[in-house]
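Below is one record:
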Amino acid sequence: MKKLFQGEEIVHGAKILGDMMKKSASTVVLTGAGMDTESNIPDFRGKNGLWRNMNPMLVASIDNFYNNYDEFHDYYTTRIKRLEDVKPHEGHYILADFEKRGIIKSIATQNVSGLHHMAGSNSVYELHGNIKRAVCNSCRREASLDDFLNKQKCQHCGDLLRPAVVLFGEALPRDMWSLAEKDIKNCDLLIVIGTSLEVYPVNQFPRMARGRIALINNEDLSYGREFDIKLIGRAKEVLQELSRNV
């Protein structure tokens, strides 16, 4: 079977992937930054990416939170404000519809935008957190996003607030990881959408999958475990085509 489809071949590839989804008793989706770019959210590593002129491992780190809160706060304030008018694109809604119809079981996402939830998906594992929520760094109680943006402190313990995201230097939330890992290990089909698979430990998920693996991505990827099928194109356009075949 031909494995790589791009350009006009996407139509045929979507039919094959659609058949794979129909036959799958459990399909899980893993999404990355390429899923959100068509909602006008820049990716991180591209030529116009958010990290092009800075080192995120320094600015968006737990060490920087403690050592240079003003810089940390400025960076996340900019990111949050850039998301104020961002809405899910049709691809997000297609995935939500797939869940409602029982075609996919869950979505594990590296994205912190919250767009999957906004589109109506319910079973979403936000592996890196959600930038539209704020928490206290010490007591972990939830705070309003406005309090964080206005540099207010926690109303309960008086410590500094932060976005509810995983910072560089921190581990992923164990509960989210465990739920996603269980679904991926038990699924018949894993669909990887819009991720470079460069970020550890999420890039280990495809290696854990025991079933088939499909790739929907703007660029072809070489990976330690071979994909069963690759659809190379923009996430929204490929998902639109896929929705016609499921």
User: Anything to note?
Assistant: The longest helix spans residues 10-23. The beta strands are 4-6, 27-31, 106-109, 124-126, 129-136, 142-143, 161-165, 189-193, 212-217, 229-232.
